[in-house]
Amino acid sequence: MDISSDAVAVIGFIVLFALMLLRVPIGMAMGLVGVSGFGYLAGGTPALKMVAQTSMRVVTDYQFGVIPMFLLMGAIASRSGMSTELFQAANRFVGHWRGGLGIATIAACAGFAAISGSSVATAATFSTVAYPEMRRFGYPKSFATGVIAAGGTLGAMFPPSIVLAVYGLITQQDIGKLFIAGILPGLLAVCMYMATIALIGLLRPAWLPAARVASWRDRLQALRQVWAPMLLFAFVIGGLYGGLFTPTEAGGMGAGGAAVISVARRRLSRADLLASLLQATRTAAAVFTVLIGAMLFGYFLTVTQTPQRVTAFITDLGLSPIGALVLIMLMYLVLGCLMDAMAMVILTVPIIFPAVTALGFDPIWFGVIIVMTVELGLIHPPVGMNVFVIKTVVKDVSFSTIFYGVIPFVATDIVRLGILIAFPAIATWLPERM
Question: Which of 44, 158, 191, 273 could cysteine-pair with 186, CB 3.0–4.6 Å?
Fold first, then answer.
C-alpha cells in the first residue's frame, strides 16, 4: 500500500520525537529518519548516495571550518585563565555594590562569551570561577546558580556565537553580519540582567551582601590583566567588521591569536594545548554529526515539500506578520522544554525560514530573534541545558534550586524579546553599516 508524502512526513516527525525520547542522539535520530524517509520515497540507492555525499560535503566544506576554529579559540582562552581574569577585574570594580558579585559574574560571562561563542562552555567555566566566590560571601545558592545560568546564555548571542554561525550556514546568510548583529542585543541582555540583579538587591537586601571596596591600585592591576581577552576580541571582530577576514578566516586568526597570546604570557603549556585541541575536536565532531543528520533530514523534508506546506499554512491563517511571528516564538518556547538550542535551530529553521521570508522579515534580524528565543530553552525547565551543566559542576544544589534562581532572568528575557521585536533596528543597525 502506497503512503502519501504528507503521511510519510507526519510519520517521520513522530518517529523522530520517539527516538529523541529514547535518548538517541539528535544527529543520529535525524539522520536515520531522513535516510529512511528519503529512501522510501525516492529509492534506496539515491538515499545511500545522499549519505556519502552529504557527509563528505559537510566535513570538507570551507565554510563549515568556522565552527572548529572558534571552538578552538574558546578552548584555548579558557585553558589560559582568561575567564578568571575577567571575573577578578569585574569584581574589583563592582563587587562592593549590593549584588555586585552577581553583576561582576554577568560582566565576566559577557567578556568570556565574546571569545568562546559557547553558552555551555560559559556556564561550565563560571560554575567553577564565580560560584565559590558568591557562596563565600553568603549569596543564596539559587541566586548564585541562577546568575551563572543566565550569564551563560550570553555565549549564544555575542560573536563568535556557534548557534548564529549554524543558522547562517543553514539559511545561507552572511555569518559576519549575523555576528555583528548580535552585539547590541547582547549588550542589551547584559544591561537588563544587571538591572534585574540590582532590583533583586533592592527588594531582598539580606540576600545579596556587599564585598569589601577594592583600592584603585587593585582595580588598575586587575584591569591590566584583561588586556589579552580584550585584544583578542578586538582583533577578531575588528577584522570581521572591517572586511579584513571572512568568518572562517576570523576563526582561524582567532584560534591562532589566542594561542600566540597565551604562549607569550606563559599561560599555555604543551599539555594545555593538547587538551584544548581534544576539547575543540570532540565538540566540533558532535556539532558536525548533528549538522549531517540535519541535512539528511532536510532532504527528506524537501521531498515531502514540508517547508512549502508549513509556509502556506502560516500565511493562510490570516494573521498579521507580528501575529505569525508570535506563534512561531511560542512554538520555540514549547520546543525548549524538549531539546537543546542547537537541536532546535537545526531541526526547525529549514522548515520555518521560508515562511519567515514570505512574511517579509529580515533574515538577519530573525536569526538574532531565534537565538534569543532558544536562549530561554537553555535555562527554563524541564531541560535547561545550562542548568544541567551547572548541576554537573556544582554538586551541592538541586535542579529545583537552580530553576528557582533563573525565574527572574527568564522574565527579563521575555521582556527583552519584546523590545527587539518592537525595535528591530537594535539588531540591524550595525550590519547595515558593514
Answer: 158
